[in-house]
Design brief:
280 residues, two-stranded antiparallel ribbon, 10 helices
């Protein structure tokens, strides 16, 4: 009976761990605002993406805001701003604010979203802070008071992705409680077991299997996300960079889990050998 209880507890713990680890990663890197900003901030350093961001920001300042007599003066300034946007002192803060505003749009109640935002969109970038930086640069150089838009929204994904995002935001924070449940199940298995080495080996082997399953699932999700098209060049570059960063980050968690599983499996086998020698 004790062996049965121990085996069932190990299986329950592994099932809970299978859910808890991805949920905790999603909560830390996507749902939490500070985590999302820290995770996505390096994306703004990609040269190709920077160039597209600058082009989108400069292009949003319409020619109708510039008097015809001044266009010859302002156009070179705009072109210069497009080339040097990411080198401006205020760029890091503007990019960070872009990420924060975008996160609030994505994880806010759809009813509170602005009319310009598609409440069914999975991810929306608001480039208004970057546009404001360009407008300030032009104003300082020409004394022309350009008005930056309050929002410059770029949609990423398909309409059904918003519903998926809402579900993720609702359930991901529960991953910590599920992880605690997994630890309790493993502890129960260890206490109930007649041969505790089998518990260590079983947990270790199961964790290594989970690492492989997480890898397959992560690759499938990445392929599904990159397989959709938003029709916007900036959005496509951001999505590609984001998926690559996510795969790399979660991949580190997978490697760590595989290493822990290997250590537990080895520890269980060592205990087994040591027990046999003591009996001998």
């Amino acid at each position: 009976m004790r062996t049965f209880v121990s085996a069932v507890a190990v299986l329950i713990g592994l099932v809970l761990a299978a859910v808890a680890v991805p949920a905790m990663w999603v909560d830390r890197n996507l749902v939490q605002e500070d985590g999302f900003v820290a995770f996505t901030a390096p994306l703004g350093k990609d040269p190709v993406f920077q160039q597209r961001l600058a082009g989108a920001a400069v292009g949003s300042l319409g020619a109708e805001q510039i008097p015809g007599a001044l266009r010859g003066l302002v156009t070179p300034v705009l072109e210069s701003a497009a080339q040097s946007l990411t080198a401006m002192p205020g760029y890091p803060d503007a990019w960070t604010e872009t990420l924060r505003k975008s996160h609030r749009l994505n994880f806010a109640d759809p009813a509170t979203l602005p009319a310009e935002a598609d409440g069914a969109t999975s991810l929306t970038l608001d480039l208004a802070p970057l546009v404001g930086l360009v407008a300030k640069q032009v104003a300082d150089a020409t004394t022309l008071p350009l008005e930056a838009p309050d929002q410059l929204l770029i949609a990423i994904g398909q309409p059904e992705h918003r519903q998926v995002l809402d579900r993720v935001a609702a359930f991901a924070p529960m991953g910590y409680a599920v992880a605690v449940g997994a630890l309790i199940a493993f502890a129960l298995a260890f206490v109930a077991a007649r041969r505790r080495w089998t518990v260590l080996a079983g947990i270790g082997l199961g964790t290594m299997v989970l690492a492989g399953a997480w890898k397959l699932a992560a690759d499938a999700v990445a392929a599904a996300v990159t397989g959709t098209s938003s029709g916007n060049e900036v959005a496509e570059i951001f999505k590609s960079e984001f998926v690559g960063a996510a795969s790399s980050s979660f991949g580190q968690w997978i490697v760590a889990a595989a290493v822990v599983g290997g250590v537990l499996l080895a520890a269980g086998l060592v205990l087994r050998v040591a027990g046999v020698r003591r009996r001998a």
